[in-house]
Amino acid sequence: MRGFIFHGIIEKEEDRYTAICLERDIATEGDSLEEAKKNLKEAVEGYIESVQQDNEESEFIPRPVPEQVVERYFQKFKELLRSSQPSEFYEFREVAHA
After folding, report:
1. Can you tell me the distance from the alpha carbon of 97 to that of 91, in angstroms, rounded to the nearest whole number?
2. Structural domain boundaries of the chain?
3. Tens-of-pLDDT digits for all 98 residues of the chain?
4. Strand spans (E) along 1-98
5. Is the CATH number 1.10.150 carried by domain 4-96?
């Protein structure tokens, strides 16, 4: 399997950063933005490695996050655009390799 492009959202909640992969419904967290992003990439790569080891590449079907999760982030993003608060909401795109 070649590289898998995934999209993540990271949100700061109190003193932790929570990261979620939109295509795989995999979530991690970290003490910093960079750590949360790194942990999410490692979790996605671990999933891909598991699929490869079990010879289930033909069953590598997208398992996106539930629609309610996407809607919650969309609403939060709209609120951030209207406010003057500093953003603690990040989106990124990454390539995972196994």
Report:
1. 20
2. 4-96
3. 567 788 899 988 889 999 999 888 899 999 999 999 999 999 999 988 888 887 776 666 667 788 888 888 788 877 877 877 666 778 888 888 76
4. 4-13, 16-21, 26-30, 89-96
5. no
Cβ proximity of 98 and 52 under 8 Å: yes
Q: State the alpha helices, DSSP H only, in the chain.
A: 33-53, 67-82
Residue 33 burial (CB count, 10 A): 15
Lookup: tokens for 58: 């033909």
What token pair was written down for 64? 């996106």
The structure tokens listed for 45 are 């790569």
